[in-house]
Amino acid sequence: MGGLLALSSLAGCASYSPAPLADAPDLAQGLAGITVDPAAMPLPALRRHAVDPARPLDVDAVAMVAVARNPELKAARAQHGVAVAEAFTAGLLPNPQLSVDYGFLTSGPAVMDAFTLGLMQDVMPFLTRSSRKDAAAATLRGAELDLLWQEWQVVSQARLLVVRAHAFERQRAVLEANRALFADRYRRTSTAMGRGDETLPNVVSDLAALNGVETQLHDLEQQALRNRMDLNALLGLTPAATLALAPLTAGDLPLPPADRIRADLPQLAGRRPDLLALRAGYRAQEQAVWQAVLGQFPALSIGSNRARDTSNVKTQSLALSISLPLFDGNQGAIAVQRATREQLRQDYQARLDAAVAGVGQGLLALDQLEAQARATADSIATLERAAADADAAFRAGSLEERTFADLQGALLSRRLEALKLDQAVQEQRVDLMTLIGGDVPENQATAPDATEKATP
Residue 443 pLDDT more than 80? Predict the structure, then answer.
């Protein structure tokens, strides 16, 4: 027994310490005291940026805080730790099996107790160890790339929420200006009607226009509140936390020219983490097929037995255990692993096709949105000139109230449409920045290999 305890102590023992769950949420009231490491960011553009929580945050600074504090990313990083542990486990070998049989002499002509001591070791894990380690390394690489892709998604979501926050503020300003205009018109016409100088239809027209603007404003306020709460949740802040945002400028969402993006599409698979993760998973499955093929050979265990009988005769034997593949040659496992490999191959092809098509569709959508934005801007200029003429005519008494209100309502609708189109253009740029993987290399011949880490 003492020998067994000595053998067990050779392997070492891990100690246990409890890790209780938290009793309170880990949500910050604000950004005070929060630090962000630019070197840990998933995109080169963010690594060149700095975050100062004391100043209003631009779109990249918000994305960096999101990567550092997002609760779901924290959980994903913990899951990555599980993948690291599993990769370590894959390289371990099974322990040899020690057996002891001790027979106490109770009666008879014998002179002493008998014993049998055996030691056996399974050989197959030694033969598959290299393949298992390669598969585990590929699986770990895939987990790292999946985490990187999740970080890209958080960056994209943070940028979208910031774009919407600014868009809602611009739309609010237009609606507030029009509400003030129609409120003033309604006060004037209702006061004039009280004096008998105005008719009820004109007053009702102004009131309807005012109510319509207020309804739009209330809807916009609800959208802005939901957007603010979504952004706070993404950053790990409480719902009521106030986040100061810097103005959004034209250079905050840089996108390479369309021709460069299209020319780089053949290299997309070498930069997108989701595609690289699928490649890593496929490499792991290749090793699984190889292990299944090795599994068709008979399982082999070797060892040695030392024995002594009750008459003090001692023997030393060589033990060999081998399975006979009479009924199962591991063909079922091989078929399953090969079918799984084919499924992964088709999954990768489908994702690659969708990725390339998604970039092409995004470029077409962006072209259309930009053309619509230009056309809307031209129509607004025409409406603004007509509205100025109508205002002068209305003040001179040569234009009826309803016509004036209708024209102002049309101008409001076009201005809101222009702002929403501008928002759609910016959101489409954010989507494309994610789909192409950030920066597009200038030299198309030096795209990173798929086995390297995705660093767009």
Answer: no
